[in-house]
Write a structure and sequence with these properties.
Blueprint lengths: L2 E2 L6 H5 L2 E2 H15 L10 E10 L2 E11 L5 E11 L6 H21 L4 E2 L2 E2 L18 E6 L17 H13 L15
Helix pairs in contact: 3-4
Length: 189
C-alpha cells in the first residue's frame, strides 16, 4: 500500500493520508530533470536533494551549489518536481515555485531573526535581507507532475525543501555539514 497512516486523526489526514508513491515520483523526477545521475561534480560544486509533503502537495527540490575558495555560495540551478494534484493554471504554479526558490535561498543563506531587550531587532528589508539577483538561484526549473488528485497548495510548499537540499549540496561539495542556519554564519572556505 502506498498510503501511510501517520496517526493523525484529523478529518484532513484521514481523507488524505501520506502517499509514498507520489512522494517517490517527485523525488525521481527531480533527480532525472536535474541530471543527478549524469553530472560529474566539479571542484566545490555539487547537487543536494530534499523532499516533503504539505498542503496536500508533494515536492522535491534538487539544488546545485557552488562554493568558491573564499567560501562564497552560489546557486547555479534549482529543479523542482511538483505534484499539486490537478493544476488549473500551470504558469501561476511555476511562478510560485520560482519565488519559493528565491525565498528559500534567502532563508537558508541569510535569514535570521534576533532579539535584544525583549524586542525583535529586524524591522524591514534593510536589516532582514532577501537574496539579491547575484545571490538567488540563477536558473529555476519547475517540472509539474500530471495528476488527477484534487488541486493542492502551491504558495508555501516550495520553500521548505530549499534549505535542506542546499545544505546537502554544500556537504557534497565541501564535506562540511551545516547544522544550523543561516549558512552565512559558517566558514566554508
Amino acid at each position: 500500500d502506498r498510503k501511510i497512516d501517520l496517526g493523525d486523526r484529523s478529518p484532513q489526514a484521514q481523507k488524505f493520508p501520506l502517499d509514498t508513491g507520489r512522494l517517490r515520483r517527485v523525488i525521481e523526477l527531480a533527480a532525472e530533470k536535474s541530471g543527478w545521475a549524469k553530472k560529474k561534480p566539479a571542484k566545490g560544486r555539487a547537487l543536494g536533494l530534499a523532499a516533503h509533503s504539505s498542503f496536500l502537495a508533494y515536492i522535491a527540490a534538487v539544488v546545485e551549489a557552488e562554493v568558491d575558495e573564499p567560501g562564497r555560495v552560489r546557486l547555479p540551478r534549482v529543479d523542482f518536481a511538483v505534484d499539486t494534484g490537478q493544476v488549473i493554471n500551470p504558469d501561476r504554479v511555476r511562478s510560485q515555485f520560482e519565488g519559493a526558490a528565491v525565498f528559500g535561498a534567502s532563508l537558508a543563506l541569510m535569514g535570521e531573526i534576533t532579539a535584544a531587550g525583549g524586542e525583535i531587532k529586524q524591522s524591514n528589508f534593510h536589516d532582514y535581507p532577501v537574496a539579491r539577483i547575484n545571490e538567488a538561484p540563477l536558473e529555476t526549473h519547475v517540472h509539474l507532475v500530471a495528476s488527477q488528485e484534487p488541486p493542492a497548495g502551491v504558495g508555501e510548499p516550495g520553500v521548505p525543501p530549499i534549505a535542506p537540499a542546499l545544505c546537502n549540496a554544500i556537504f557534497a561539495a565541501t564535506g562540511q555539514r551545516i547544522r544550523d542556519l543561516p549558512i552565512r554564519k559558517h566558514k566554508l572556505a
